């Protein structure tokens, strides 16, 4: 119980601690807070492995109580998000070294992680919604960090689109309360939702996780500092929608078949279209943003199958994507940091100058593409297997087509940046935290794929 | 789970990882070599142990199965043999010193995952090992050229994704993740056909059969001959054809359409690839196109649909891997000494590198199908298999397919011989280049060992083909091989040796004292000084034939390059998605934003700051309220 509350309170309260602490200590304090958050999340693991769940509830009104739940899904999400967030914090030490406004950055970053922790452990729909909107506020401030006009415009766009979706979701929650008289997830378990309510909630999920047709904000959010885009696009923000989908539609409510079928169609369309768009772009971060949209489509598709096995595969995909996509964004950040540009047409021939970044990029890219023996292969293969076993042949075919697109756009990015003629010659700083972090992410993506029993066993044990 | 089989995967995997931490390439090579020796010995030991399978749980309803069958046992043996020989051969010419640790690590990992493919008893483990070899192929090629690595990744990657889809379709139909043995499903509907075609695509891409072959010539121009010998020449062939064998014999029951398809693809691959090889001046590209051409024979063998042809295809897989590997190593050795791969710049190396020359000659005669070497033995079986198919079918289209295949195979062999006469002449014979060859010596002893082992195998399997046929291929096929005619390789070899012996005796000093030595007879004409006919000009006449010229034009502009077709198609689709969908949605979102801003503008305009105006609005509001509440 204490660990559960600590996991939420440490980063939320700690963010204010970061804001008021001396400037030279702020980076260290922020990183330590995120480390503590990760350790707190890990400490809850023994209970979930034993199949136990931890509950906490403090009643306020009929529709709102401070209800928290620590089960396999929430602990898994907390561990993955806090771990990747911690690595990004280490990366930020060198990346943000020359920026003046570091306090603001670390405050919002730590608060962001805190909001994520609160969201994944929420067992009340309104409490969940509060943390959901808190993440929107944090991301709004982080996307517009540089305070230039294009940055604030992108931040406003992200905020407005996600708030629009959140409003739809809130309407859905209100309709649930009006019909069933409760906002508690435990009390609502097993009830059937009408299509209207389900689609309203899906509207919120689609906006947060940047799925078609509310995806364009994520691409424009690439104007933010690299640690922010890594946090948004890989570790935290975009996974929120997926988490809520899994929590509500796989573990809590019963939906009509047409809802899941629509989710499948929406995911497929997102996978293919976003992947195609990535092949057209020339901005590194925009390419990776489209890639995120596409890959999230895969994860949503897996959860839309709504079976115990697909649920576990979805979790592995979240893990694989968080690690590898964070690595890709952080690699892009290193390149941007050194060369001063995100335009791949102005880059080239960096392989010999940045060999560690090159290797880290390849390791993470292969995982995203789904090439064995990387971790990303397993959920992608299982997805196609699931689709074809359930007779959805077109789904399987389109999933493979999406994977082909993924291969093309990630290798196009690699070729443009690392091969060919050198246009801007820079040197990689091998002692930098940035390089170490991307290498760690790449190696973990490889190791967990080779020792595939480990992630499978982990997921099997914590999610029964 | 039995720990012993899994060692074949774990040991080279760990060794490769450990070798990354050594400073010198000698230590890396030594460690990896030791591990590969252990693997080779273990795979020999497994030949004498009973076959068994073990399984372990993965997740959900899925278990993974590890085990060997007769065919995979043979493949395992040769995978480890080639891995060992190429590791032994590899020297600093094959990698830059700073890449040496990576080179040996990749080699070790490649053997690990290739072993895993042989050990896989279920589709999931199979595709895992299969896909991992793609990543290692990319890594190897990336050591020297990113562009060729990218092309290989794309083409072979397409094959791998096709395999995933094909396997999943198969599992959907069969309801089982286990790889069946002799329990194939018929090609009765669209799904089974789609599964068959997709799996074929994977096998073709890996083995380098048309139309998924274009990565091999591109890779050959930038990669070291040792890597070419390892990957497209031997390991990829073994694994690709192993998959093809399982598809044709175990997974599916092929009908005439499928057999005809294999025959035509095989025949066209033989022809087009050998025609391209004939005009090459770069020895790597020449060998690369021949590697592609030889795959055509293997595919053709499976297309015959009879035991002789299938056995011939399998036997040719082994033989081709041996002599193709040897050709890359010997050709590469010669080119390394002269620092060029251009056939026009090489020549008269036989006197300086006699062992390399003799081994190269053996490999060249083998690939050309000259008895008593192994290439002849397998090609002879393939011709017989095609003839048997031709005689036994009454279907007109199939008769055409068999005939076309037979003619292509024989014509292909002729052109192969022609090509390798050029190869041998250009590198080892030809114009005297003593000035350029000054200081050149034979390769170091360990390289000689590698190529001598391969050359010996060419001879051994040519004289005693039953060693492989009776111990591996026939038991796996489960039927006795009945050959046409009465060719006896052992007797032929004996007669050949006797003939050579007689020739040596006649030419020896004992008899030569009774003979008169004179200069070569040139019909009374004086040979013009400096008259030389370079080997690269041998087949200029063929190249200038109008039909052949058109074919060459098509092949040279890469109009049929699968990589270019795939890339263009995806680019066109992407542009459509981007403009018609993504940008349209973005415009809609922005429009909504502007509409909201427009409402805001209107509301701002209504805030005039004048009290009277607000009073009027309040009055209107009150009136509306009264109306509602009346």
Class from secondary-structure proportions of chain A: mainly alpha
**Net shape of chain B:** elongated
Oligomer state of the chains in this structure: heterodimer
How much helicity do the residues of chain B have?
over 70%
Can you list the strand order of the major beta sheet of chain B? 1-2
The percentage of residues in β strands of chain B lies in under 5%
Content-based structural category of chain B: mainly alpha
Average predicted confidence as pLDDT of chain A: 90
Could you tell me the radius of gyration of chain B in angstroms?
31 Å
Biggest beta sheet attributes of chain B = 2 strands, antiparallel
Key attributes of the depicted protein:
heterodimer, A: about 475 residues, mainly alpha, two-stranded antiparallel sheet, 20 helices, about 75% helix, B: about 625 residues, two-stranded parallel ribbon, about 5% strand
Characterise the protein shown here.
- The complex is a heterodimer of chains A (464) and B (630).
- Chain A has 464 residues and is mostly helical.
- Chain A is built from 20 helices and two strands.
- Chain A has a domain of 201 residues.
- The model of chain A has no long low-confidence stretch (mean pLDDT 90).
- The radius of gyration of chain B is 31 Å and the shape is elongated.
- In chain B, the strands form two sheets. Chain B has a two-stranded antiparallel ribbon with strand order 1-2. A two-stranded parallel ribbon of chain B has the order 3-4.
- With 630 residues, chain B is mainly α.
- In chain B, helix 2 runs parallel beside helix 4 and helix 11 runs antiparallel to helix 12.
- Classes of the chains: A mainly alpha (464), B mainly alpha (630).
- At the A-B interface, helix 7, helix 13, helix 15, helix 17 and helix 18 of A face helix 5, helix 6 and helix 22 of B.
């Amino acid at each position: 119980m204490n660990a559960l509350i600590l996991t939420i309170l440490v980063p939320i309260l700690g963010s204010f601690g970061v804001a008021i602490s001396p400037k030279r200590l702020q980076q260290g304090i922020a990183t330590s807070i995120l480390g503590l958050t990760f350790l707190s999340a890990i400490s809850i693991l023994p209970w979930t492995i034993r199949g136990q769940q931890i509950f906490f509830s403090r009643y306020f009104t009929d529709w709102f109580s401070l209800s928290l739940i620590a089960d396999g899904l929430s602990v898994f999400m907390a561990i993955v998000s806090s771990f990747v967030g911690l690595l990004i914090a280490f990366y930020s030490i060198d990346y943000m070294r020359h920026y003046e406004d570091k306090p603001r950055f670390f405050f919002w970053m730590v608060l962001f992680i805190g909001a994520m922790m609160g969201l994944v452990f929420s067992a009340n729909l309104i409490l969940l919604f509060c943390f959901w909107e808190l993440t929107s506020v944090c991301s709004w401030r982080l996307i517009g960090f540089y305070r230039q006009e294009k940055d604030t415009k992108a931040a406003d766009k992200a905020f407005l689109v996600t708030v629009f979706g959140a409003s739809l979701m809130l309407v859905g929650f209100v309709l649930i309360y009006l019909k069933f008289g409760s906002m508690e997830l435990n009390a609502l378990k097993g009830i059937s939702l009408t299509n209207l309510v389900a689609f309203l909630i899906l509207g919120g999920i689609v906006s947060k996780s940047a799925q078609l047709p509310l995806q364009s904000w994520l691409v424009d959010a690439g104007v933010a500092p690299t640690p922010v885009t890594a946090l948004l696009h890989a570790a935290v923000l975009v996974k929120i929608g997926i988490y809520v989908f899994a929590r509500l539609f796989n573990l809590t409510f019963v939906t009509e078949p047409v809802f899941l079928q629509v989710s499948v169609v929406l995911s497929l369309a997102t996978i293919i279209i976003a992947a195609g768009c990535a092949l057209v772009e020339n901005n590194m971060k925009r390419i990776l943003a489209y890639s995120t949209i596409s890959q999230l489509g895969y994860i949503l598709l897996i959860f839309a199958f709504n079976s115990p096995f697909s649920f576990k595969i979805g979790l592995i995909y979240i893990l694989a994507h968080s690690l590898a996509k964070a690595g890709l964004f952080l690699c892009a950040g290193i390149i941007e940091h050194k060369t001063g540009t995100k335009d791949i047409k102005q880059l080239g021939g960096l392989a010999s100058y940045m060999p560690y970044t090159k290797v880290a990029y390849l390791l993470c890219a292969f995982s995203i593409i789904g090439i064995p023996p990387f971790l990303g292969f397993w959920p992608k293969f299982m997805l196609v297997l699931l689709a074809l076993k359930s007779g959805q042949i077109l789904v399987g075919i389109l999933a493979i087509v999406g994977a082909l697109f993924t291969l093309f756009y990630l290798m196009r990015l690699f070729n443009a940046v690392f091969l060919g003629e050198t246009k801007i010659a820079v040197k990689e700083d091998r002692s930098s935290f940035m390089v170490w972090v991307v290498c760690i992410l790449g190696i973990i993506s490889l190791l967990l794929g080779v020792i595939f029993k480990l992630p499978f066993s982990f997921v099997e044990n914590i999610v029964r | 789970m039995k720990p012993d089989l899994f060692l074949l995967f774990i040991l080279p995997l760990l060794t490769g990882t450990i070798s990354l931490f050594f400073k010198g390439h000698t230590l890396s090579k030594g460690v990896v070599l030791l591990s590969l020796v252990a693997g080779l010995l273990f795979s020999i030991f497994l030949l004498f142990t009973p076959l068994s399978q073990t399984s372990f749980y993965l997740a959900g309803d899925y278990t993974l199965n590890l085990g060997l069958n007769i065919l995979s046992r043979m493949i395992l043996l040769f995978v480890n043999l080639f891995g060992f020989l190429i590791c032994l051969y590899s020297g600093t010419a094959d990698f830059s010193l700073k890449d040496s640790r990576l080179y040996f690590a990749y080699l070790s990992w490649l053997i690990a995952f290739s072993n895993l493919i042989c050990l896989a008893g279920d589709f999931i483990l199979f595709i895992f090992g299969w896909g991992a070899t793609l990543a290692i192929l990319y890594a190897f090629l990336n050591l020297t050229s990113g562009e060729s690595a990218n092309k290989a990744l794309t083409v072979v990657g397409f094959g791998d994704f096709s395999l995933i889809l094909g396997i999943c379709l198969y599992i959907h139909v069969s309801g089982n993740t286990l790889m069946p043995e002799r329990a194939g499903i018929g090609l009765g509907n669209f799904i089974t056909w789609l599964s068959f075609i997709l799996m074929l695509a994977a096998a073709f891409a890996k083995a380098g059969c048309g139309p998924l072959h274009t990565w091999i010539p591109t890779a050959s121009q930038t990669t070291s001959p040792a890597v070419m010998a390892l990957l497209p020449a031997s390991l990829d062939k073994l694994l690709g054809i192993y998959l093809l064998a399982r598809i044709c014999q175990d997974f599916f029951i092929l009908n005439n359409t499928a057999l005809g398809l294999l025959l035509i693809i095989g025949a066209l691959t033989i022809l087009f690839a050998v025609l391209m090889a004939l005009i090459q001046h770069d020895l790597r590209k020449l060998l690369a196109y021949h590697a592609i051409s030889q795959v055509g024979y293997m595919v053709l063998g499976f297309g015959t649909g009879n035991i002789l042809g299938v056995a011939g295809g399998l036997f040719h897989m082994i033989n081709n891997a041996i002599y193709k590997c040897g050709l890359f190593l010997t050709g590469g050795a010669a080119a390394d000494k002269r620092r060029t791969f251009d056939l026009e710049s090489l020549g008269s190396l036989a006197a300086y590198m006699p062992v390399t020359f003799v081994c190269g000659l053996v490999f060249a005669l083998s690939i050309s199908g000259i008895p008593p070497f192994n290439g002849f033995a397998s090609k002879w079986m393939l011709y017989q298999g095609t003839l048997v198919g031709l005689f036994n079918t009454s279907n007109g289209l199939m008769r055409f397919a068999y005939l076309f295949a037979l003619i292509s195979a024989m014509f292909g062999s002729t052109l192969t011989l022609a090509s390798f006469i050029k190869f041998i002449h250009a590198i080892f014979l030809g114009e005297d280049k003593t000035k350029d060859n000054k200081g050149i010596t034979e390769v170091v002893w360990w390289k000689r060992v590698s190529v001598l082992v391969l050359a010996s195998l060419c001879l051994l399997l040519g004289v005693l083909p039953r060693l492989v046929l009776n111990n591996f291929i026939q038991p796996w096929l489960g039927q006795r091989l009945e050959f046409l005619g009465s060719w006896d390789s052992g007797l032929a070899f004996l007669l050949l040796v006797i003939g050579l012996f007689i020739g040596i005796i006649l030419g020896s000093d004992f008899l030569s004292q009774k003979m008169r030595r004179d200069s070569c007879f040139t019909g009374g004409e004086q040979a013009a000084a400096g008259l030389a006919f370079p080997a690269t000009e041998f087949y200029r006449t063929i190249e200038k034939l109008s039909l052949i010229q058109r074919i060459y034009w098509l092949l040279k502009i890469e109009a049929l390059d699968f990589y270019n077709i795939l890339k263009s198609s995806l680019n066109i689709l992407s542009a459509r998605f981007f403009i018609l969908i993504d940008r349209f949605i973005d415009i809609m979102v922005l429009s909504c934003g502007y509409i909201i801003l427009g409402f805001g503008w209107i509301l701002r305009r209504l805030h005039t700051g004048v009290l009277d105006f607000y009073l009027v609005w309040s009055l209107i509001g009150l009136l509306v309220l009264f109306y509602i509440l009346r």
